[in-house]
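User: Teach me something about this protein's shape.
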Amino acid sequence: MKAFVLVLITTLALACPQNNSNTCSSKFNKTVKKSQIPISKTQSILISSYNQKEYIKKSDLLSIYLIKSTNPIYYKLSFKKHFTNTFTRGDISIRTDNCCYLNSLQIKNYTLSKNILKYFLDVKNKNVNFADAGFRVKNINNKIIVSSVDFAYKNLKIKVGDEILFYGKTKIKSVDQLNELVLLSKIDSRVVWSIKRASKKLIFSSILDKRVGGYSKSDTYLERFGFNLNQNLVVKNDINRYSIKKGDKILMLSEKSVKSQNDIREAILVKEGKISILISRDSFEFFVKVEI
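Assistant: First, the predicted structure itself:
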């Protein structure tokens, strides 16, 4: 898969005319074509799968960098509720109002909301990390149900099939809402969950960890071991400690055939402290044992 480099923007100093979406579209196409979307007169957000040598801050999870640049025009991150326009070029889509203020950004198959962008810009650390609860959820009949649990979270009491009711005091209404609440929480903080298991309501607490999978990365729980897969489960990078090479493909995991990242999350089974993975390289197949 080709690496991508796109510089994104978050605000416009020279505001577009009110109710002129054509002007907004023109500005967006012009700046994205130049691979630059600045956030101030001196800074831009760069989205890149390449490692950058010079930057102000970065997020490995999101593959974004804050870099120095000179920008006569730049875009503001807006928290207005009503946005009517979506402009797309290549792998980038932005949600704006008619005045070209940016509300959210979608890159390929993941979205950076205004809250995520703001968090990235506000954090003072050079390496910006995000939190993980150790499980994934999906919407089933308008209920937020746990679909898989990270095997590395040994003391997590939440189980597959649990319905998530509350995160702290916040009622959970959607998958995106829960994902963002967790993502922007403090790593190593203790949080309280209200869940429903069968017909019984339970309350648990857990400690959040650093998130390493999802967004610009694959999301299989194997990312903590250096794996980064495409949608066809082809490895995108060399993993020397397991003699895995870029281009290798995962066929089976824990003796179960897998065809998607979701299959891997749900198939992982730890036996004697190890995970068994069947790898295909050209016409050769071999097993790898990953110790946890």
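Now, about its shape. Residues 4-19 have pLDDT under 50 and may be disordered. The helical segments are 21-33, 114-122, 175-183, 261-267. If you'd like, I can walk through any region in more detail.
User: That's plenty for now, thanks!
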